[in-house]
Amino acid sequence: MATSPLNPTDLYDVRSLLSEEERMVQDTVARFTDERVLPIIGDCFDRGRFPTELIPEMAELGLLGSSLPVEYGCAGMNGVSYGLVCQELERGDSGLRSFASVQSSLCMYPIYAYGSEEQRRRWLPDMAAGKVIGCFGLTEPQGGSDPGSMRTHAKKDGADWILNGSKMWITNGNLAHIAIVWAQTDEGIQGFVVEKDFPGYAAQEIHKKMSLRASVTSALYFDNVRVPDANRLPNVKGLKGPLGCLTQARYGITWGPIGAAIACLAEVLDYSKSRILFKQPIAARQAVQIKLAEMARRITLAQLLSLQLGRLKDAGVMQPTQVSLAKWNNCRMAIDIAREARDILGGAGITTEHSPIRHALNLESVITYEGTETVHQLVVGRELTGINAF
User: What cofactors does the UniProt entry give for this protein (predicted)?
Assistant: First the structure.
């Protein structure tokens, strides 16, 4: 009985495990990436420009706050569909996926999960429509792996709060109309919706980046910013708030690098068949085939890992340690594949005419932000031993 060839970027036919709706979401975002992102993203990376012209199209497709309820203007997708959105966007570029992750998981999610009904009605529909862009202020200049030591603070002053401090490495900072800012208070860490036009609030874009160049990264400054109590997220106190947001965003990050790795493998597969060396395509060489097979193996494992994580999320039983394991594994997988793909391309691989060098540089940020590889290793180690080694 004849068998059809396997899909080289889906050797285990993981797609067959998706529902019809999940496949439709993946196909829709894949088409958007192919038609609207890939033709321009290399130039955007070269110029250090985020393609803001794509924001209305992403909103129209329901990609902003995609897993939040439809009553707030969102698409109401399940967790696996949100993961597939992240995968297909990052197949284009990590910067585009980072934009969607921050808007959805780090800004819209805390308003939905920790905000009042008035705050949900005020912000979420316009954020889903791409009319209001958000950023997430947690990391500070002195370090990001210990958020409990943050120095940004808010003091109660009548019906308002006075906010002072700074945040660093903030995606979307100079694009944002609002910032979800976490600050120390006398009652513990609390979250505030800081509006762009509040006096004393400033965002400064960070330049000279060699990673996430097609993304806006900023520092935020708060100099006696007066924030109404109506802009405080009332339903959470302590690190539980920002860490809950990070779990949502890290979940999407477990899927995103799979897209980057698939882009690299697909490109070098084609290249290896057309690049002739010593009178043969380099695809005929054992060394190249072993590298390609290793890429396919690691992508397959990552696909299965994230799909099961998504099923756990949709069943309501996903644990943060499981997210850490997948974030650690899949980011390491993708950055290793991007580097190998660059090597197979030879000298041509150092230009952004090919995607692997761009993905490799972007993944240096992805493997670092929202928990470094070491942090996630220690999270898993703590789960295994019951001992905190931080």
Answer: FAD
370 is catalytic: yes
Q: What is the DSSP letter of 350?
A: G
Q: In what order do the strands lie in the sheet with 190-195?
A: 134-137, 178-183, 190-195
Residue 34 CA to its chain's centroid (Å): 19
In the set 22, 90, 340, 370, the catalytic residue is: 370
DSSP 216-227: -EEEEEEEEEEE
Cα–Cα distance, 253 to 221 (Å, whole number): 27
- Residue 2 is predicted with a pLDDT of 60
Strand 190-195 versus strand 178-183 pairing type? antiparallel
- CB–CB of 204/143 below 8 Å? no
Q: Is 340 exposed, middle or buried (0-12, 13-18, 19+ CB in 10 A)?
A: buried
Q: pTM for the complete prediction?
A: 0.95
Cα distance between residue 295 and residue 289, in whole Å: 10
Residue 205 is given by DSSP the state E
pLDDT at 291: 97
Domains belonging to the chain, first-starting first, are 14-128 (1.10.540.10), 134-231 (2.40.110.10), 240-385 (1.20.140.10)
Could you tell me the pLDDT band of residue 1, with boundaries at 50, 70 and 90? low
- How high is the pLDDT of residue 125? 98
Q: Which one-letter DSSP state was computed for residue 104?
A: I
What is the rounded (10 degree) CA torsion for 379, 360, 295, 377? -10
Please say if the pLDDT value at position 278 is more than 90.
no
